[in-house]
Amino acid sequence: MGSLSGKNAVVTGSTSGIGLAYARAFAGAGANVVINGFGAPEDIEKERAKIEQDFKVKAIYSPADMTKPAEIAGMIALGETTFGSVDILVNNAGIQFVSPVEEFPIEKWDQIIAINLSSAFHGIRAVVPGMKKRGWGRIINTASAHSLVASPFKSAYVSAKHGIAGLTKTVALEVATHKITCNCISPGYVWTPLVEKQIPDTMKARSLTREQVINDVLLAAQPTKEFVTSEQVASLALFLCSDDAAQITGTNLSIDGGWTAA
C-alpha cells in the first residue's frame, strides 16, 4: 500500500517534464492520476498507459485547455466523477516567452498570464469545495525561482510566477482550518523541454552560442552549477502530500541550487 493509496491527483501540464514526474511520483505512491497537457495523442496515450502499467493505478487524460476556465473546471469534475474525489491538485502548466518588454507581443503576455497564473486560480476554485467537504486536500503550485527574483526579457513569466506565490499564500490562509494545505515549489533551472526550447531564443536575444547560454545564462544563476531534476521536484511534492507536511502551508519552497540565496 502506497502512502497515497485511495487518493486521487490532478496534475496540469503533465504530458512531459516536471508535470509528468509529479504524476509518476503520485502514482508510485498509490494515487490515481488525471494527466493533462498538449502533445501528440499517441505520445500522451503512451505515457498514460505506462503510468497504469508501472504503478497499477488508474490514469486518465484530460485535454482541458488551460486558457479556458470552463475546461479547467471540467477537468476537476472529470477527476471527481471518475475517481470519486480530487484530493491533490498540482497547478503546473506553464509556457515561456523571451523578449524585451517594449517588443513583448501583447497576445503572448495574455497567454502566459492565462496559462501560468489564471489557470491555477480556476483549478483551485473548482477543487476547494470537494476538499473542504472531505476535510483533506493538498494544493501544490509550481512557481519558479522567478517567483522570488527576476531575469531580463521575461516580464510576463516573472509577473505570473510572483502572482502564483501570492495566490498560494492567500489560498493557504483561507483553507487553513480544513486540513487542506497550499504551497508552491520554486525550482531553478530544471532540464525540461521548456528550458531546452528557450535556448535558441536566448541565443538570438543575447547573441550567444548554445554553450554560452547553458553555462553563462542558465547555470550562471545556480551556484551548484547543476540543473535541478524533475524527479527532485516531484519528491518534494510527494513530501508535501504526506502527514508529516500537514503544518507546511502558505510556503514557497525553493529547489534552485542556491540561486535565490545570492
Describe the structure.
This protein is an alpha/beta fold and 262 residues long. The protein has a single domain (8-188, 229-261), classed as NAD(P)-binding Rossmann-like Domain (Rossmann fold, 3-Layer(aba) Sandwich), CATH 3.40.50. It is built from eight helices and seven strands; from the N terminus they run βαβαβαβαβαβαααβ. A seven-stranded parallel β-sheet has the order 3-2-1-4-5-6-7, sandwiched between helices. α1 (17-28) crosses α8, α3 (69-83) packs parallel to α4 (106-134) and α6 crosses α7 (210-218).
Please describe the structure with a list of short key phrases separated by commas or semicolons:
7-stranded parallel sheet; Rossmann fold; 48% helix
Write the layout of secondary structure elements.
Blueprint: E1 8-11, H1 17-28, E2 32-36, H2 41-55, E3 59-62, H3 69-83, E4 88-91, H4 106-134, E5 137-142, H5 155-174, E6 180-187, H6 193-206, H7 210-218, H8 230-240, E7 252-255
Parallel strand pairs: 1-2, 1-4, 2-3, 4-5, 5-6, 6-7
Helix pairs in contact: 1-2, 1-8, 3-4, 4-5, 6-7
Q: Quote the beta fraction.
A: 5-15%
Low-confidence stretches: none
- How much helix is in the residues? 40-55%
- Mean pLDDT across the residues is 96
Rg (C-alpha, Å): 18 Å
Number of domains: 1
- In oligomeric terms, what are we looking at? single chain
CATH superfamily: NAD(P)-binding Rossmann-like Domain
Task: Give the overall shape.
Answer: globular
CATH topology: Rossmann fold
Largest sheet: 7 strands, parallel
User: Which structural class fits the helix and strand makeup?
Assistant: alpha/beta
Order of helices and strands: EHEHEHEHEHEHHHE
